[in-house]
Design a protein that fits this description.
The structure is a single chain. This protein is mostly beta strands. Helices cover 2% and strands 23% of the residues. It has 1 helix and 10 strands. The protein has one helix spanning 155-158, and strands at 18-21, 24-26, 43-53, 56-58, 65-71, 76-78, 90-91, 96-100, 108-111, 188-189. The strands form 3 sheets. It has a 5-stranded mixed β-sheet with strand order 2-4-6-7-10, with no helix packed on it. Strands 1-3-5 form a 3-stranded parallel β-sheet, with no helix packed on it. A hairpin with a 7-residue loop joins β8 and β9.
Length: 191
């Protein structure tokens, strides 16, 4: 979930507890007066709890989490210096691309090469079935990826680790017949 133009803000209002599964919330900023209300660019649960499962929170202004955030497993928070999310969240660089048309009906943020989010959700976990946000079946690798984006077999290894400038045209990846083995840093748990 990303607010892409001011003054648009993403806000979930609910009278009851809410669960978010296979969600990517990244790169959000704070609106005017938001810090006064204790809000953050990530998930803010003021009067109810938010349970996260297989979700990725990265580089949100203020913090990735605030309020009553519950961990249902296989979540990732980045950077490691942001300790606002539950201790059980994994920590590692997701190497997110810019918000772009990666196929499907909505824009997504692709997982880059050596992403800590790739192949981290066991196939028996809730949400590791069906399709990802862009319509790609889950899983594409041996297990599912954390967040809304499921890296396809070829692109997981070929997507650059650093995001492109929004004004730069995408560089098409070279074609290769198989998904090459790639070193991937293991996510760490917050302390």
């Amino acid at each position: 979930i990303r607010a892409v133009s001011a003054p648009l803000r993403v806000r979930i209002r609910s009278a009851d507890a809410t669960t978010l599964t296979n969600t990517t919330i990244a790169g959000n900023t704070l609106g005017t007066g938001a810090t006064r209300n204790g809000q953050v660019g990530g998930v803010y649960a003021a009067n109810f709890s938010v349970t996260l499962a297989n979700s990725l929170l990265a580089s949100n202004a203020g913090a990735n989490c605030a309020g009553t955030i519950l961990d249902s497993g296989d979540n990732l928070s980045f950077p490691a210096s942001d300790t606002s999310c539950p201790v059980a969240f994994l920590s590692g660089d997701p190497h997110l691309g810019v918000l772009a048309n990666n196929g499907g009906s909505t824009d997504t943020m692709a997982l880059g090469f050596a992403s800590a989010a790739i192949d981290q959700v066991p196939t028996v976990a809730v949400g590791c079935s069906g399709t990802a946000q862009r319509g790609v079946p889950r899983p594409q690798g041996p297990t599912c990826d954390i967040g809304a984006y499921e890296a396809d077999v070829l692109m997981a290894a070929l997507t650059p680790a650093s995001p492109r400038s929004p004004s730069a045209p995408p560089t098409p990846p070279p074609l290769v017949p198989t998904r090459p083995a790639r070193p991937r840093p293991l996510p760490t748990r917050h302390h």
